[in-house]
Amino acid sequence: MNKVAEDFYLKRNFKLGDSNGDTSVYRIRKMVAASELAIVYAARNDEKGIKCIIKEFFPAALVRRGKDGVGVLRKAGTGEDKYNELRSAFKNEGDLLRKSQHPGVVRILDYLEQNGTAYIVTEYVEGMTLDRYIAALPDEMDPGILYKTMIPLIDTLKYLHGLGIIHRDLKPGNIMIGKDGSVTLLDFGSAVTYQNQGSVYPIFTTTGYSPLELYSEKSRQNPVSDIYSLAAVLYYCCRRTAPTDVRKRLFNDHLDRLGTGLNRRWPFLSHAVKRGLTVSQDKRCSSLQWFKAAIMLEYMASPFFRRKNPSG
Questions:
Q1: Where are the alpha helices (DSSP H) in 48-79?
Q2: Which residues, by range, are in coiled-coil regions (predicted)?
Q3: What three-state secondary structure class fits 268?
């Protein structure tokens, strides 16, 4: 938890207005997470009686909380250009969520500009993140579970890429497994449209899950960047740990497919994961269909599938 954000988060029962001008619609319940750029709260829409999530733009290195405990003020001496760049990226997150109307994408409810900052309001998804979901499994990942969780995720990525959007922060903590079994992709704070030539991209990375190109503002970034992260997520599903970070494989792009014994456990998936985790974009697997096919083959070869579909 970010210490600065913890000291200055909005307090319980504080109310925010909505984008229609109503002054007290969203009630803060508690802070649930904080990063270098934002504070995330569990909240409630008092008018509709529903839970929601509110993400407050709060780049802790550049801003401070006002004396009223609510307003957000830029710190003296901080760079205006950097602040504006981050503020623009935050607004871009809201814009991309509005554009991405898909059951596998967290739904935006509102975008607010108040108190010297901005807020993104999204639906509250009941369930647990993929890392917690896997940790709760009594045994190793079953092909049936992998099929039920990863196929919908791949379909969501295909939809986003069709819109010209790359997520750029695919990791277990940003994938929600709902109580109803649904799979929802969260946190579009790093997402960008990739079809603009010569674009400069803000650098947001996660050790183990980010491809090499995400460490440069001016590198070529496209759906293949998300494919690297998808392969890393699948690696995590099978081994319960992230793969070796890409920066440690610059001069020796050797990666054990899935570890001793697991090549036999996942004969199809291990090849797809290895191709997806290739350091070089040009040599990396470029199609989501490879992963979808590998997961389906693992599922169809599993005892669970054969019991459900006996021959004869």
A1: none
A2: none
A3: coil
Angle at 30 between CA 26 and CA 34, to 5 degrees: 105
DSSP 114-164: ETTEEEEEEEPPPEEEHHHHHHT-SSSPPHHHHHHHHHHHHHHHHHHHHTT
- Helix, strand, coil share (%) of the chain residues, nearest 5: 35, 20, 45
Nearest-CA neighbor of 225 among 274, 156, 284?
A: 284
Say if CB 202 and CB 235 are below 8 A apart: no
Whether residue 50 contacts residue 42, with contact meaning beta carbons closer than 8 Å, is answered with: no
Cα(92)–Cα(12) distance, integer angstroms: 28
Judge whether residue 83 has pLDDT over 50. Answer: yes
Question: pLDDT by residue (tens digit) across 118-150?
Answer: 999 999 999 999 999 999 998 778 899 999 999
The pTM (predicted TM-score) of the whole model is 0.89
The amino acid occupying position 158 is: K
DSSP annotation of 308 reads: H
* pLDDT tens-digit readout, 12-44: 999 998 887 777 799 999 999 998 899 999 999
Taking the C-alpha atoms of residue 33 and residue 154, their distance in angstroms, rounded to an integer, is 26
Residue owning tokens 């939809």: 159
Strand partners, 112: 119
- The lowest-confidence range among 5-9, 92-96, 234-238 is 5-9
Q: How far apart are CA 261 and CA 84, in angstroms?
A: 50
